[in-house]
Amino acid sequence: MEDYPSDSDSDYTSYWRDWFIASRGNEYFCEIDEEYLTDRFNLTGLNADVQYYQYALDLVTDVFDLDCDDDMREQIEKSARHLYGLVHARYITTTRGLGKMLEKYKKSDFGKCPRVLCHGHPLLPTGLSDLPTTASVKLYCSHCEDLYNPKSSRHATIDGAYFGTSFTNILFQVFPALVPERTKERYSPKVFGFKVHASAALERWQDERRVGMCRRLKALGVGGVFGGEGEEVGAEDEMEEDEEEGGRVEG
């Protein structure tokens, strides 16, 4: 565990949140407002999940003054980090929390998508479960709509419950302008300029499925979901109608 840049206990407990946010490996977290931390309603139910809950809360809110040995202090510090993470998952779904995470997202503080065809699209941290110790944090790309493991081992050990399963969806609902256009760009393996047969067959199958879905949505009166693909479907329908009419004439 990293120590504060001070030898006194008073300084040790004066800037806990600043120290936590500045510590290496905690770059995914944003700072929780003190008003949010001191509102007991926001902490409902967490006392059952955190050992030494009250001491941990005192440490996080900078009022810790218990005289204890190093082992006890280490346990309380561990509980304080866990408590901060659980509160963090709730805080980042609030207006203030979303704003802070949005700023980090715009600066690509969470990294960029490793997929080449996403062209460095920024990532967002998300959890696979809201239950602690279930799964580590993952990174979500809204461009390819896929999940990735963090590059750093320090980030890979962060509990996914500290970000929850709802944060990314809420962010894009509150800020719909951030939702990127659906991409149809994908890699096609080739040999001497010709598409590999298996890959080409898969691509044709995917296109047929997409066209079929567009037709069903069009029949239900839902249009523009895939952006411009309705026109492609319409053109294909016209071609099929022309072929059918041609067949009837020849008959």
Please state the CA-atom Rg, rounded to the nearest Å. Answer: 26 Å
On the 0-100 scale, what is the average pLDDT? 83
Helix content: 40-55%
For the biggest β-sheet, the strand order reads 1-2-3
Biggest beta-sheet profile: 3 strands, antiparallel
- How far is the N terminus from the C terminus? 84 Å
Q: How many strand units?
A: 5
Strand proportion, as a percent range, falls in 5-15%
The SS-based structural class is: mainly alpha
- The count of helical stretches stands at 10
Model regions low in confidence, pLDDT < 50 over at least 5 residues: 1-14, 228-233, 238-251
Broad shape: elongated
Q: What oligomeric state do the depicted chains represent?
A: single chain
Sketch the topology as an H/E string, one letter per element: HHHHHHEEEHHEEHH
